Amino acid sequence: MIRRVHVIESGGRGGVFNHSVEVVTGLRALGVDVTLHTTDDPETAPDGLVMCPCISWYRRSRSRFVRRSRTAARYLTRTLPHLYRVIGADDVVHIQGLFALTPEIISVARMRRATVVCSPHNTFVRADTLGNARALATMLRRADRVLALERGQLSALSSALAVESPHV
Question: pTM for the whole thing?
């Protein structure tokens, strides 16, 4: 029996965030206990949506190095320990989108014995900036389920990264 669904969306803005809001809204309408873990500065969302602002991007800095460093440090020291505390063995962790630290989120969910569902939202890695290829390969290898728009996308991803496709 599923206790809670944790939807994790690391950007807080744009299409993946809007899709995550719709997923959470739909699950709530079905009576599911669901929390959207996102940034501390997200776009607006409907009232009544349970949002946990546990991710910080430090968008104000002009320096890309400072933004990335502070974001990664906070993710490793605050976000991941927070997720470890709130995720339980009977929970589902649904990771929306791709982020360089996606493998670490999956590791935390695995340590807590949660079911991991991933929706990469991208069918290719644009650049290996901050380990995106590693993140995508890990997502495909370690998720219990991967949600893709069509089976061909998952096959193309798996072939390109030389990993076996998980259950779709």
Answer: 0.83
